[in-house]
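ingest -> validate -> predict -> emit
validate: passed (alphabet ok, no gaps, 672 aa)
predict: started
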Amino acid sequence: MGRWHPCMNLIGGCAAVGIRPKNSYLKEGPNNLKITIFRNVFTSRLIVFQFRSMRLLNAHTRLLEEFFDVDITPKYAILSHTWGKEEVTFQDLQSEDYESKTGYRKIEGCCVRAVQDGYDYVWIDTCCIDKKDSSELSEAINSMYQWYSASAVCYVYLADVEADEGKQIDGTLLSNSRWVARGWTLQELLAPANLLFFDHHWHELGFTSKNASSNHVSDITSMLSAATRINESILRDRRLIHRATAAERFSWAAHRQTTKKEDMAYCLLGILGVNMPLLYGEGESAFIRLQREYIRQYNDPTLLLWGFGLPCQDLFWRSTSDWALAPFVSLFSGFSSPPKMERNNVLSTFSCTNNGVEVELLLLGVDKNIKLACFGTSAEFPLHRRKSSDLTLASLLSPLRRLKNERTGSTDQTVIALPLLYRPNESRGDFNIYERALLWPPFLIPESLCWNAEWTRVYIQGVNIQSVLLKPSHKIYREYLVDIEMLTKEGFSLDAVYPPANAISLTTRITLQVQTEGFQRFFLIFKGPNDLPLGLFLEYEFEKTKLLQLRVSLGEMTMMDVLHYLIPRGEALSGRARRKALAKLGRSLQGVLDPGMTSFKIPGERLGRPTTNYAIVTALVRRLGNSHFRSVKLQWEEHHTDRHGRRSDSSTEYDLSSHGEIEPGRPSFVKS
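emit:
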């Protein structure tokens, strides 16, 4: 072999900015890797090396140095902060007056602290990346999580926080800091092994560490967990990050924001463990592309559970994609609170196709065209539910576990159910196409309800709300309104609509597309203060397309109450039995026939309002003009008791002249 040029010893070491070994040149390689091509002096043969380069700022000289092999860079401190005015950029360091910029104080403070802690180098995103070079920017963003992870310590500079005289910080100051609300700072919190927090004057506030402790400052990990809505165990052990489901990881970013829409996806690359090129200008499509890239590399169907724990209105109006994937990361905010989910051990197809997301799901039938996809909260759930020739110990013990629970009355494990609507016109044979039920978000059900669910390979497609709104109404349907404005003002949100098809949700009203034949029944489920459930039952009776009567009922009801009637033993009822069950459930509530109204009385303590004696919800049936178009309007009336025991009433004004007096309602819903 020939002799190497002396400059080759720079490989694996560092060079000043812009300097490369002689007889070499740089090219951009695959996966954003930089390729340096060297020429052997004697043989003239080309030798190709690939590496990710990294610039570090010398904390003593304030000069940038480039390291071509990240694996053997010297120990360095890294800065986590939010961008402000007059930040010092890569180009500014080439000039002589950069020290006069406001952002230089941040760099100065970081370098001074690094030298005190024994580090010769620091990395700061404002000046260590040439953001005018698109290929370098793409490489840096795809590598940033690893750079933060490889740092010896991360200095978190909170520019909008000032410690008290004792140099302490409370949870409110931390929660209100801009640093907690920005998208890019999420990976800066999760990736480093050690973090030190500083206020505006570089006073040390506290630390959080995965493998060490500090004697001179306090551990603020618990405070960080409350402020960021991330489980404390995740903050203490970063190995748990990639064991969490995609839905849980997305929930960590659900309440954060970025300046550019695309960055809301790009800031999650390292947290998800994926790489992809950056396409600034694609807007919110970047988040769809991120999920598709994640699906290509990982088998984690929890991506489909977006909307869990959110009101129907949020889910309906934010569905702007034809894909079954979430259009926005904020739709995963429901996973910020329990249940805690483990990644299921499912060895099955999960991919994106031109027909939708192909996935094998455990489906529970509700009726002919409505299924519930069941997602267990434990890793073993799919294994002991799978019915196959490959019998496992878990699957053999499943009937025994069920029998034991029934005999002992043990508490059921919870399962997240994803409602899906079957598309019979697009489906052929085993090619089953489903779509999301926008007015029925994912919700919790007991695991015992899933005993008769079956594994089915399906294709899930999204629902673009614009196409729903522009779709012409079918001649056999009529539209009827439900006005919920006053209910929403009192803190109630729409939790679900059953059946979810043929309904449109606006902010303050629901439009029901009712088929004009026989009996058509709807349930609207609301969640109020203190998680108070409230159900509205509507029964339309038609004869030859003419509406004969409208029955309205009110009562305390959840979607689980509805499911207990629809699938009483874990199996879907026949069409006739289902219609009878729904009628029986609806008529068990407080209600009267049209014309008229129905009311429901709620004690003040159920609302969490000490000064309220009770409140009355009233459903008014109204006919608009001389037509047969009838709407239902929900009204609210509160009866208060002051500290002297005197009663006073507050109510919304409405005309009672054509409806008579309010009838007393029953205080709660009782299943038959």
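The mean pLDDT is 79.
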